[in-house]
Specification:
The complex is a heterodimer of chains A (about 240) and B (about 300). In chain A, strands 6-7-8-3-9-10 form a 6-stranded mixed sheet, with helices on both faces. In chain A, strands 2-1-4-5 form a 4-stranded antiparallel sheet, covered by helices on one side. Chain A starts with a strand and ends with a helix. In chain A, about 35% of the residues lie in helices and about 25% in strands. By secondary structure, chain A is α/β, with parallel strands linked by helices. Chain B is an all-alpha fold and about 300 residues long. Chain B has 2 domains: about 1-55, no CATH class; about 100-295, MetI-like (MetI-like fold). In chain B, about 75% of the residues lie in helices and about 0% in strands. Chain B contains 13 helices and no strands. Classes of the chains: A alpha/beta (about 240), B mainly alpha (about 300). Chains A and B meet through α3 of A and α10 and α11 of B.
């Protein structure tokens, strides 16, 4: 059980953003957290990432409380956040360079670049790449660290509809290969159900978990599954909660 | 029918020689749209492109022509406003024989050397101080009051003090350049550091970078574009400070040349000096721009 979130709350001044959230993420599962904007889902992810501490409760990684950010919990943010002074290859290798500048495992960097379909663009600068490619570089930069948990904070929300669709398909295929442990935040119901093994639906003011449910769809996932009754049932439940 | 009418109009117009309507040639095609509209549109946009491409050169030439005309009509006494031709003669004279004991190249050389030492010194001091001030609060609080005090005082005001302290050698000029330029560089550097996008920091943190690694690999490169902007403003300030110092207390340099020639009412030489100062300042700015494009090619690309 890599991640255990135990009775976690978070206040910003007098404002209670998160109230008593408990969640466990098992090894090799893809957990999606679905919620309207402002429900505190990004706050939750930031606490798991170690970027901000919880006001109440605790978050354990392999039984140990999280003290700060670390490469065992790399985040893919909504914006790619690539470094424009580095080439694509150096952006992907950034975390490895921080770990040890002298022993960057270049074969692994190049393998991840190939898996992400970025081969041939190694020496390009981020601003020479499309939005979808930039986000794939951000994903490559995270995966090359082989994190215990991959945290994704609405990674496709800033992309156009077509690119988002492609990225979702790409992520599904990728996940079949690597079976990583993923905590994925989104406000898109279809995305949450299609990608997740488990869907966690959050309510707002204060943020809390309202529904936690396994997705009754087989793997590998296909886009057509969004037409199956099981998908539609879960979607209806989620819609009711999000509509308040 | 409409096309035939246009053709007729065109023929008629072509019959009367009118150099101001070049659209005639286009109107001769049978299927052409109303000639005035089409031709005016394309000619105007083409003309506009040519105009904007040569705008700088055209305006310069026009200015010189107007200047020459003003002189030809004797609107001002020639001693106050020499003509472009006599300024050109002054330049040739300066290049051939120099003025006041040394050649024009000596003055350009000594001024450039002072600028180079002063400006490089300001960058070498200003950037690290700015970085420290941006990162360590107590250093910011210690230095900032001095910075804010020095800044609004015009550099000219320091010159008498610097002359008393350091004489009229090289030192007071370089110190004045430092006084004028260092604050610009420091403020630009601080602003660059503070302007580092938070996302870049969060990314580095979650990838396991230490605070010193974040500083070196994220904050420093992120602040480079702002540091370059500061350098471009700074080189102008440095140049202003230097010429001011040379005007008041120097025995060579371009500022001295202008001042010395002015006292002798050699206005043509004064104008040559001003033009050389302007051209050199512009060249330095261009040099930094070239340097900037090499060091921060990502500028303007987020």
């Amino acid at each position: 059980m890599p991640i255990r979130i135990e009775h976690v709350g978070r206040d910003f001044g007098p404002l209670r953003v998160l109230d008593d959230v408990s969640l466990a993420i098992e090894d090799g599962t893809f957990v999606t957290v679905l919620g309207a904007s402002g429900c505190g889902k990004t706050t939750l992810l930031n606490m798991v990432a170690g970027l901000s501490p919880p006001s109440r409760g605790r978050i354990l990684l392999d039984g140990k409380p999280i003290a700060g950010p670390g490469p065992d919990r790399v985040v893919v943010f909504q914006q790619p956040g690539l470094y424009p002074w580095l080439t694509l290859r150096d952006n992907v290798a950034f975390g490895l360079r921080m770990r040890s500048a002298r022993q960057i495992e270049w074969p692994r960097v190049d393998e991840v670049i190939a898996v992400m379909g970025l081969r041939g663009f190694e020496s390009h600068r981020p601003y020479e790449l499309s939005g979808g490619m930039q986000q794939r570089v951000a994903l490559a930069r995270a995966l090359v660290m082989q994190p215990r948990v991959l945290l994704m904070d609405e990674p496709f929300a800033a992309l156009d509809a077509q690119t988002r669709h492609n990225m979702q398909r790409f992520l599904l295929e990728l996940w079949e290969k690597i079976q990583a442990t993923v905590l994925f935040i989104t406000h898109d119901i279809d995305e949450a159900i299609l990608l997740g093994d488990r869907v966690v639906v959050m309510g707002a003011r204060p943020g809390r978990i309202v529904l936690e449910q396994s997705v009754p769809l087989s793997r590998p996932r296909q886009w057509e599954m969004s037409l199956e009754p099981a998908f539609i049932d879960l979607k209806r439940q989620a819609l009711h909660i999000l509509a308040g | 029918m409409a096309g035939r009418e246009h053709a007729e109009v065109a023929t008629l117009t072509a019959g009367t020689p009118d150099p101001s309507s070049p659209q005639v040639a286009i109107a001769e095609t049978e299927s052409a749209p109303p000639p005035a509209v089409a031709a005016a549109g394309s000619l105007a946009s083409r003309g506009w492109r040519i105009t904007s491409r040569y705008a700088t050169v055209s305006v310069l030439i026009a200015a010189v022509i107007v200047w020459q005309i003003v002189c030809d009509f004797h609107l001002f006494p020639p001693i106050a406003l020499p003509s472009p031709v006599s300024v050109l003669n002054a330049l040739i004279l300066l290049l051939a024989h120099g003025y006041g004991g040394h050649s024009l190249f000596d003055d350009i050389w000594i001024s450039s050397l002072r600028i180079a030492i002063g400006f490089v010194g300001a960058v070498v001091i200003g950037v690290p101080v700015g970085l420290l001030m941006a990162r360590i609060d107590i250093i910011f609080r210690t230095i900032d009051p001095f910075l804010q005090f020095i800044r609004p005082v015009p550099p000219l005001a320091y010159i008498p003090l610097l002359v008393v302290w350091f004489g009229i050698g090289e030192l007071p000029k370089i110190v004045l350049i430092l006084i004028g330029t260092i604050p610009v560089i420091i403020i630009g550097t601080i602003s660059g550091v503070k302007g580092t996008p938070p996302l870049r920091l969060s990314v580095a943190r979650t990838l396991g970078a230490s605070e010193s690694q974040i500083f070196r690999h994220v904050i420093l490169p992120s602040s480079l574009p702002e540091i370059f902007t500061a350098m471009r403003i700074g080189i102008g300030v440095a140049w202003t400070c230097l010429v001011a110092a040379e005007l008041i207390a120097a025995d060579q340099g371009l500022g001295w040349l202008v001042q010395y020639a002015g006292q002798a009412l050699q206005v043509a030489i004064v104008i040559v000096g001003i033009i050389v100062i302007g051209v050199l300042g512009y060249a330095m700015e261009l040099l930094i721009r070239v340097f900037e494009r090499r060091v921060v090619p990502w500028r303007g690309h987020g």
